[in-house]
């Protein structure tokens, strides 16, 4: 038995015949020291409902509950994992709800209405970025979540936290920087997973800005798409189809600059200078 009184994860995987499926973007994290570190990076969970996506055999789920999470809602589409998760639910009566379903079809804001929510997950690689963008672009702000602690491939994590001037800075960095404060908490070596992915992973912690700079999301997306779609070109060229020189002049931005040099505030100025689409 382990410190939480449940069988070692390798035994759980063997007992239930759960081999990681590439088609589901699965890489299982079996090191309970690391899953505990992720849970701690999420902060004090004792007053929160934690939403976890893709728990697999439940390594992180166990760490979240052992760390004192008031309640965990785990969304898992792989039916092979449900029996292992049921064993955890039995061990922590009334504190784990397992939803057998597809995270991409889930209305996350409806899972725990009125409760403080933290999202903590070792996200499946194939849907991680799409889910993050969904959570960042939720209509109501402040959002339904009070923080997100998520694992990504390191390359994606660097794009999320990138500052102007960095090679990784792009549309994702502008979006994350506009609505949140994001930082990489720590890296996780590939050898920590079963099977080991080809790349290092990183845990990113995001907290929402209470009052992001005023901008319409659709317009901000339009201007960042145009600017970074031709990132090697000067802005007066890359922004031609959305207003070009006129838009830049109104925002007080030099048209000879390139997209990766602009701050989030400058992108917001450009978005606000765009006429709302008909």
Q: Which blocks of ≥5 consecutive residues have pLDDT under 50?
A: none
- The arrangement of helices and strands along the chain is HEHEHEHEEHEHHEEEHHHH
Helix share, percent: 25-40%
Q: Structural class, from helix and strand content?
A: alpha/beta
Explain what the structure shows:
Strand 3 (71-76), helix 4 (82-91) and strand 4 (96-100) form a beta-alpha-beta unit. This protein has 11 helices and 9 strands. Helix 2 (32-41) crosses helix 3, helix 8 packs across helix 11 (264-273) and helix 10 (244-251) crosses helix 11 (264-273). The protein has helices at residues 9-16, 32-41, 59-66, 82-91, 128-136, 154-161, 171-179, 217-229, 235-238, 244-251, 264-273, and strands spanning 28-29, 49-53, 71-76, 96-100, 117-122, 145-153, 180-188, 193-194, 201-208. It is α/β, with parallel strands linked by helices.
Task: List descriptors.
alpha/beta; 278 residues; elongated; two-stranded antiparallel ribbon; seven-stranded mixed beta sheet
